[in-house]
Design brief:
Blueprint: E1 2-3, E2 6-7, E3 17-27, E4 30-40, E5 47-54, E6 60-68, E7 71-74, E8 76-79, H1 80-92, E9 96-102, E10 109-117, E11 122-132, E12 134-135, E13 141-145, E14 167-169, E15 176-184, E16 189-193, E17 202-203, E18 210-214, E19 225-231, E20 238-242, E21 258-263, H2 269-272, E22 280-286, H3 304-318, E23 324-330, E24 334-336, E25 342-343, H4 346-356, H5 369-377, E26 386-392, H6 399-408, E27 413-420, H7 426-435, E28 440-443, H8 449-460, E29 465-473, E30 479-482, E31 496-503, E32 508-517, E33 520-529, H9 539-559, H10 564-578, E34 585-591, E35 603-607, E36 609-611, H11 616-621, H12 635-641, H13 653-659, H14 663-669, H15 674-689, H16 694-711, H17 728-732, H18 739-755
Parallel strand pairs: 3-15, 5-35, 14-36, 22-23, 22-26, 26-27, 27-28
Antiparallel strand pairs: 1-2, 3-4, 4-11, 5-10, 6-7, 6-11, 8-34, 9-10, 9-34, 12-13, 13-19, 15-18, 16-19, 17-18, 20-21, 21-31, 23-24, 23-25, 29-32, 30-31, 32-33
Helix pairs in contact: 3-4, 3-8, 6-7, 8-16, 9-10, 15-16, 15-18
Domain VWFA: 280-461
Protein name: von Willebrand factor A domain-containing protein 5A-like
Domain VIT: 1-131
């Protein structure tokens, strides 16, 4: 929208922010993002522009500066109240000032103020942060630049002021966004994927270890900008030693060398193949109104809640016999299917599924604290480790209260969290998983929820790792002070990061992580050289400082009323020393060289962020809970819905229909095996026709194979040949002479037999 004042919002207020240019540099698994925000005042009065926007919750914001004409001003980190007072004083005296501060409730929301921008003037704001890239279950490294900030629910009685966010529908965002990324790694780059439109990947050298990619034109702000980066031979342990800052005091974090160690534990296959039939699985499902939104724009008929129902079906069918489970749902209030977790059986599974089918996004707001408190108040079941799965679109404001609660109960469970849809709070989703010793997953763009959740269920079924310790083998005169919190969880193939401050001469050393896995002592060791890398950008130091700051902030919240001022002082000191933001500090810059005061009354303009507003029509058309559940249209889900808790299938019309035959046709093929026949055919159908969705059904297929094996049924003839192999053609291929279909049906039989 353009008029005499330039860009305006839908309520006709001019918007001084014209464009955002974001440039990403990725070095292996560490990313640095530099954003340049261009402001222009086309009004006849001086402006104060206020922009509340999202950032990754684990980002270390380390630079903030402004360019006004020929004047370049670099902001300083100061105690937050002092910075706010300096900003207000500058505006009162007619000076230009710039303030960047983190929200007190959630570390993934920032407020940027551009104060006293004169009429006709422009200003360029430079914002820089560093972050580690999260490892995904498929070995990809995930970077996300949040572009969507949905309204966040403020629970009743929550502490602290709420963040005032000005939002417009994504299609009406009145400024442009450009994005480019340069990626480099010691290993070749296989591919880079995104839910956004990208220009073709361009390699910058022959060995494909450097590449660049750009966001396609016309970004609509209807999704976050997500990159998934894949390297060949990923998951290689590494250690990066970075020299300290020359101007910093020796002995301080910024003055000494810092090492970042990345370990990827590999567990023995013999241990991984033995999944114990134990555990308490608690599923906490968000049923707030926003869960009625579509999963993505390309399939608007699939809502978040409908996908969640399908996911719960797969989860319930994949649980092992002998475990315990329960399902909670929450919004403004919360409900649970059982008063306490119950043993998994055919009866309890069916009862749970009947209620899952009736779930709707009809519970109002997003109050997650109360159901979490209720779950944690339940006594744990001996010899059944608690695994908590949390599904939410992450639209809450009391993020720190939630993550602190998870942390306080970390000894009693592991927490796996799932952020559903665009705009889910990274601070909430990542924070819950980190504090709960689990794994975080984000379902955005065209992602399907089911495979990602089943990946996490496989992690939850891994044997628990106990007695984790870290030891250093260093030469005499060299010491290492660990800066990271203690490692509380280790998963097969997933990265463990350790930051440590080093003192002493350059030499060789090693770090060893020891742990107990299913009663077996194990360890992973990495040798490295203590010679600092030539890179002087202090990236590792800032990430280490961010890690220490977050730990101290968390400790300060638990100490409130007990030495909290002392801990707050330590946070402020480290934040100022490292130049990394915290909840107790802010970046402040004042233009003292303008020569004269900016006269005239100050006009405030709120710069809007994007939110997704495509939910109302879905709330109105949502299926009533009183209506009967609708049958699954997806053949895979139809088949899964027919499986028994034991892992077996019964032979009836619905199963035959999935196979494309009648019950009579299937029974005639091998009547003496009718007790096993249905389960055998179901597994062969999965292996033959649904290999592209194997991640979704693999666990329930393993359970079915175990059931078949336990029956000791005669599935082989006297020659040792499977008796069912000769009748596969009759079941799947009657009335068909297509040789390709014959091959397709027979191919999975041998694969299936390996399960037995």
């Amino acid at each position: 929208m353009v008029n005499c004042f330039g860009l305006v919002t839908d309520n006709k207020e001019p918007v001084p922010l014209k464009s955002i240019d974001a440039q990403l540099e990725v070095k292996d698994h560490v990313a640095t993002l530099v954003s340049t925000l261009t402001y222009e005042n086309k009004e006849d009065k001086p402006l104060e522009a206020v922009f509340v926007f999202p950032l990754p919750g684990d980002a270390a914001v380390c630079h903030f500066s402004a360019q006004i004409g020929e004047t370049h001003i670099v902001a300083e980190v100061k105690e937050k109240q002092q910075a706010q007072e300096e900003y207000d004083d500058a505006l009162s005296s007619g000076q230009q000032a710039f303030l960047l501060e983190e929200s007190e409730q959630s570390p993934d929301i920032f407020s940027l103020k551009v104060g006293r921008l004169p009429p006709g003037e422009s200003a360029s704001i430079r914002l820089e942060y560093v972050t580690e890239l999260a490892v995904q279950a498929d070995d990809g490294l995930r970077f996300c630049l949040p572009a969507v900030l949905n309204p966040r629910y403020q629970p009743q009685g929550s502490e602290g002021p709420s963040v005032q966010v000005t939002s417009v529908p994504a299609s009406l965002v009145p400024y442009s966004l450009s994005f480019s990324a340069q990626v480099s790694s010691p290993r070749p780059i296989s591919k880079i994927e995104s839910s956004c439109s990208l220009e073709p990947l361009q390699y910058l050298n022959a060995d494909q270890t450097k590449a660049t990619v750009k966001l396609g034109g016309g970004h609509k702000f209807d999704r976050d900008i997500e990159l998934l980066i894949y390297y060949k031979d990923a998951h290689q342990p590494s250690a990066v030693v970075e020299a300290g800052q020359a101007s910093a005091k020796p002995g301080s974090l910024m003055g000494d060398p810092v090492v970042m160690v990345s370990l990827y534990p590999e567990f023995p296959q013999s241990v991984m193949s033995s999944r114990a039939a134990c555990g308490e699985f608690v599923f906490l499902m968000d049923l707030s109104g926003s869960m009625g939104c579509p999963m993505n724009n390309s399939t608007p008929q699939e809502t978040r809640i409908s996908s969640a129902r399908d996911t719960l079906l797969l989860l319930l069918k994949s649980l092992p016999m002998g475990c315990y489970f329960n399902i909670y749902s929450f919004g403004s209030s919360f409900e649970h299917i059982f008063p306490k977790s119950v043993e998994y059986s055919e009866k309890t599974m069916k009862e749970a599924l009947e209620k899952v089918e009736k779930m709707e996004s009809n519970l109002g707001g997003t109050e997650i604290l109360r159901p979490l408190n209720h779950i944690y108040s339940q006594a744990c079941i001996p010899k059944h480790p608690r695994q908590l799965f949390v599904f939410t679109d992450g639209e809450v404001r009391n993020t720190k209260e939630v993550t602190d609660l998870v942390k306080n109960n970390a000894d009693s469970h592991r927490c796996f969290s799932f952020g559903i849809g665009e705009g889910a709070s990274s601070a909430l989703i990542n924070g819950m998983a980190k504090e709960g010793g689990g794994q975080a997953q984000f379902i955005t763009g065209a992602d399907r929820m089911q495979p990602k959740v089943m990946q996490s269920l496989r992690f939850a079924m891994q044997p628990a790792v106990n007695d984790i310790s870290v030891s250093w083998d260093l030469p005499k005169g060299v010491s290492a002070t660990v800066l990271s919190p203690p490692i509380t969880a280790i998963f097969q193939g997933q990265r463990s990061l350790i930051y440590a401050q080093l003192t002493g001469p350059e030499a060789d050393g090693s770090v060893t992580v020891k742990y107990s896995l299913a009663g077996h002592p194990s360890q992973n060791q990495l040798h490295f050289n203590l010679k600092p890398a030539e890179d002087s950008e202090l990236t590792v130091h800032r990430l280490a400082a961010r890690t220490v700051i977050r730990s101290m902030e968390s400790e300060e919240r638990t100490r409130r009323g007990h030495q909290d001022e002392e801990m707050k002082k330590k946070v402020v000191e480290l934040s100022i020393q490292s130049g990394v933001s915290s909840c107790f500090t802010a970046f402040i810059a004042v233009n003292k060289d303008s020569g004269k005061a900016v006269q005239g009354p100050l006009v405030r303009r709120n710069v809007p962020t994007a939110f997704l507003n495509k939910c109302q029509s879905y709330f109105k058309s949502a299926r009533s809970a009183a209506e009967p559940p609708q049958p699954h249209k997806d053949p895979l889900l139809q088949l899964v819905s027919l499986q028994n808790a034991s892992g077996s299938w019964m032979l009836h019309e619905a199963l035959a229909a999935v196979l494309g035959k009648t019950k009579e046709e299937v029974e005639k093929a091998k009547p003496e095996l009718v007790g096993l026949w249905a389960s055998i055919l179901a597994l062969i159908w999965l292996h033959g026709f649904k290999m592209d969705a194997k991640e979704e059904w693999e666990l329930l297929a393993m359970k079915a194979a175990s059931w078949i094996k336990a029956q000791n049924g005669n599935i082989y003839n006297h020659q040792g040949t499977p008796v069912f192999k000769c009748v596969i053609k009759q079941i799947f291929l009657r009335d068909s002479l297509n040789p390709f279909l014959v091959t397709l049906a027979l191919r999975p039989v041998d694969h299936f037999l390996t399960l037995l």
